[in-house]
Structures are given as C-alpha cells and as structure tokens.
Design goal:
548 residues, alpha+beta, single chain, 17 strands, five-stranded mixed sheet, four-stranded antiparallel sheet
C-alpha cells in the first residue's frame, strides 16, 4: 500500500501478421531520484530567498552580453534601481562615464570569461548619479559542457571603509610628519632583529646619523663597547619582546664617538595575531639633567650634613633649656613655700592694718599662682627627664583616679562627667592619669558662666593596633584657627583675668601623647565647646629618647 514514483513505458505487442497480441509494460522506481530533485528544488528556492533577502550586497545575474537578468533587494538598496527598472538593461549603467569611455564593462566580462572570476574596486554610479566606492566580484557561469551561460555579479558598497582608510592614511601621514618634526627625541623603528627601519629628524640631531647612513644598520651601533661585549642590545630586545616594554637610562654613543646620557624606551610592536613586527625606540638626551641632578645631589648631601649639625646643636640647646627649666622650677619650690608660710603668719598677725592685710592677701594669692605655674613647669619638664615605665593600663580606671583628684572642683561647678568603657593599653600609668586630669581640668576651667560643665569621655573606632579616645565638653570652645596654638606652652587665648591658669596644661597633654607615639587633635567652636581626639598605639612607640 506504499505509493512510489514510477517511470512507465508501455509498448504495443503484435504477432507476425501485425495483429495486436497485447502490451509490454516496463516500470522503474524513481522515488529516490524524485526526492533528490525535490531536495534540489527546495535548496534552490532557499538560495533564491537568501539572495533576495541579502541587503548588504548587490547580487544579480548578467547574460553573456552583460544584460541584467536578475536583481536582489541589496542591489536595489545600493544602486537605487527597482527590478523592473533595471532588468533587461546593460550593466554598464552602473559605471562612471570615464570607465564607459575606457570600455571597462567589456573588459570586466572578458577578464571573468578568461579567468573564470575577477575582482575589482573602483567608483560606481547610483541611479541618482551619486558615486560610491564599490568592491566587485564577477564570476563566469557555465553549464556542464563548458558553455557560457552568463555571469554572477556581487557588489558591496565600501564608501565608508574607504573614507575610514583615507582618514587612517591621513592620520598616519600626520603622525609621520609630527614624528619627523620632533627634534628633542630620537624616534625610530627597529625590525625584529634590531635593524633600524625608520629615522626621524630628532634621531639625526641627537645621534648624528642621516637616514641614508643608518637605516638597515643594527641599533647596537649606539651602545658603548662594554655594553656590546655584555650583550646588552640583544638583552634589551629580548626583554621588550617578553614583557612588552623596556626602559632605562644609560650611556649611548653618537656618530662622532662622543657619549651622552640617554633615557631610552623600547616597545614591542605586534600585529593583530600577536606576531612581532618590530620595535619602537624613543631616546632622549638627559646629559644636562644628569649633571644637574648630580649637582643637586651633592648640594643635598651638603645641606643634609649642615642640617644634621644644626639639629644636633638645637637638640643639645633644647636639652640644656629643659634641664634649666627642671632645675629652676625645682629650686623655686622652696622659696615659694617660705613666702606662703611667712605670708600666712603675717596674715594672722593682729598688728596689720586693714590695707596691709589686703596687700598680704594679694601677695599670698600671687604666691599660690606662682606655685601652680612652677608645679606645671616642673611636671612638663619631668616628662622629658623621667624614665618611662610601661604597663597594662585600664584607661577607664585612669579616668576614675583623675576625677577623684578633682572632686572638689567638680562639686563646686556641679559638673557631670560621662565616661564610657575605655580600652586597656600598654602605657605609663601615672602619665595617663595626668593626661585625663589636665583635659578634665581644662574643660572645668573653660566652662561657660551659669552653664554646668558636662564632659564626655568615650572610645571610637581607630586604625589597626591603635585606640582613639575623645574628650568633649560644652564649654567656651575656641576658633578652629587656634587649634594648634593652644598646645604651645604659655600660649593663651584669653586674658588671665577671664580664665586663670599657667598655659601649660595642654602642652603637658601633647607631650604625654607624644611620649607614647600618638597624636592629639583639638576641635572647637565658640560657645559650643571643645573636643580633643587622642590616638594612641596599643603598644607604646616613644618618639624620643628620655633624658637620664
């Protein structure tokens, strides 16, 4: 019951007398051949659809005389003719008048007939008369016997590519002109083996060779004999080839044999597929700069020696001053104590008049203030003279001890002190207590009238292996421009009549922080308070050697 495609031949069969005897029937199964023919037909239809749908290429057929016999969508888009407008016309309609006059259309067909195929690039003309740059392939079509049936022609509009090529050529020419115009740099190309392939004006000026003298020569001519003997030129090429670039400074040789100090950049140049094309080499004469650098180096060495000498003298002088301050402040304590003792005795004496008692009171107050200044000066000096013993210090406990010594003042001002949990670090315990005492005392001293002091001490996030402590208050504050000045000894932002004190407290804070290899920074705003940010290493890193 399966149908098949058959080829049938029926032949009439007669006897000797010519009478019809019957019929002979010969049947052949052509199912496979028909399937193959159908497949070819469908393939041809698909090919036709494919050709018709191509828009980037004009694909059409010519008869042996050059008349257009087919036309696809791409041909209409590129050339502007519809199929009905162009089929039946000679393809010379697409050529420029000068090409038609030169009989170029006929030459193309003859060449394709002789060689089976020919390709060409040149100007072609659209229906509206505009020219475009075309890439053309003409192929001769023949039957099985070799008889010429016509030609297939494929045309592609290459106008944009040609414009890009023209721009590239113009750019390359400008680059060549620019490189040749550079006089301060030798810019040239080497082939993969190191032979000079190009030469600019700067190379001629710098090295002394004209292009005709050096192109084709090996670039090792520019190296001193010792570098050539060491194989340096070949090593430089190998390095640039391996890593892409080589740069150095060293001696090079001019044509006349003189040496100059050169900065050299050697760059490998590769094709898109990665194969080595050659090298670009840029050389600059740095002889004058090297001489200048050498002079500067010698000058810096002399300056450094002078600075070291002066620094040593200043250190010694500073050491003497600190020693003097320590001795002076220490020796002043006893006379001041005596002034206070005898002043107290005189103040209780009944023999003084009212005016004399007032004078004695003022004398005693001045002596007390002098005692405080001397004590602060002694404390400041001791920070440089004392040996620093470090131990694990709980900073929260240090704050508690500092506030205990200031209980009376805190109570008088009805101050509030908020202290969050603080970390434990390796430090000098007495100095840490002294640090917090001075900061809290500073905040109490510079509180605003009728505003109870409120002081907050907290820990904040800090860089690795460091702690950051912030001490903030709601006091008088200060202009930020004075943030560094307030740490200098005896520097005051207010008169002594407004705020009493020696002007050393914050200097002591800074010295303690520096003793531990840390930093302290102040931030202020008038009538809004002050904030001190202290950063200390978890393990101390003293920045100077304490005096013995």
């Amino acid at each position: 019951g399966v149908p098949f495609w058959a080829n049938v031949v029926i032949t009439r069969v007669v006897d000797e007398r010519g009478a019809l005897v019957g019929s002979a029937k010969v049947t052949r199964d052509l199912t496979e051949r028909r399937a193959a023919e159908e497949k070819i037909k469908r393939s041809e239809e698909k090919l036709q659809i494919l050709v018709e749908s191509v828009r980037e290429y004009a694909i059409y057929m010519l008869d042996p005389e050059g008349t257009v016999v087919s036309w696809n969508v791409g041909a209409q888009r590129i050339k502007g003719y519809t199929a009905t407008e162009i089929i039946g016309r000679h393809f010379s309609a697409f050529f420029t008048p000068e090409d038609v006059a030169a009989n170029r259309p006929k030459w193309e067909l003859e060449t394709a007939t002789r060689l089976e195929s020919m390709s060409d690039e040149g100007w072609r003309v659209r229906k509206d008369g505009r020219r475009f740059w075309a890439n053309v392939v003409v192929t001769a079509l023949r039957d099985k016997t070799g008889q010429l049936l016509g030609f297939s022609k494929v045309t592609r509009d290459m106008s944009e590519r040609r414009e890009a090529d023209e721009r590239l050529r113009a750019s390359e020419q400008r680059l060549r002109d620019m490189i040749d115009a550079v006089k301060d740099y030798a810019i040239f190309m080497l082939d993969p083996a190191g032979h000079v392939a190009t030469w600019n004006g700067g190379a001629e000026r710098l090295k002394g060779y004209r292009a005709g003298e050096i192109i084709g020569a090996h670039f090792s001519k520019f190296y001193p004999p010792e570098d050539i003997a060491a194989g340096k030129p070949a090593w430089e090429l190998e390095t640039a080839d391996r890593v892409g670039r080589y740069e150095e400074e060293g001696w090079r040789i001019r044509k006349d044999g003189s040496r100059f100090w050169a900065n050299v950049i050697l760059t490998a140049v590769r094709s898109p597929d990665g194969s080595l094309i050659g090298y670009t080499k840029v050389t600059r004469d740095m002889t004058a700069r090297r001489a200048s650098d050498e002079a500067i180096r010698l000058s810096k060495e002399d300056l450094a020696a002078t600075v070291r000498q002066r620094t040593a003298a200043l250190v010694e002088s500073n050491r003497d001053l600190e020693q003097f301050a320590y001795i002076a402040s220490h020796d002043l304590q006893e006379p001041i104590r005596r002034v206070l003792v005898y002043g107290d005795r005189l103040a209780t004496s009944s023999s003084l008049s009212g005016v004399e008692s007032e004078w004695m009171r003022k004398l005693t107050l001045s002596a007390i203030r002098l005692k405080g200044i001397v004590q602060d000066l002694l404390n400041f000096s001791r920070l440089s003279h004392a040996r620093h013993v470090y131990e694990d210090v709980d900073l929260t406990s240090a704050v508690r001890e500092a506030t205990a010594d200031l209980e009376v003042k805190i109570g008088e001002l009805k101050a509030k002190i908020h202290c969050g949990p603080l970390p434990t670090i390796r430090a000098n315990r007495s100095q840490m207590i002294h640090l917090f005492q001075n900061l809290i005392s500073n905040s109490l001293k510079f509180s605003r009238p009728a505003v109870p002091p409120e002081i907050t001490i907290r820990s904040e996030a800090a860089p690795a292996q460091h702690v950051r402590i912030v001490v903030a208050d709601n006091g008088a504050g200060f202009e930020q421009i004075y943030a560094e000045r307030i740490f200098k000894p005896f520097q005051r932002l207010h008169s002594r009549d407004v705020y009493d004190g020696s002007g050393i407290g914050l200097s002591i804070v800074q010295r303690i922080v520096q003793n531990h290899g840390g930093t302290v920074t102040a931030f202020g705003e008038p009538s809004r308070g002050a904030r001190f940010v202290i950063e200390l290493p978890v393990k101390p890193v003293p920045v100077f050697e304490p005096l013995v």
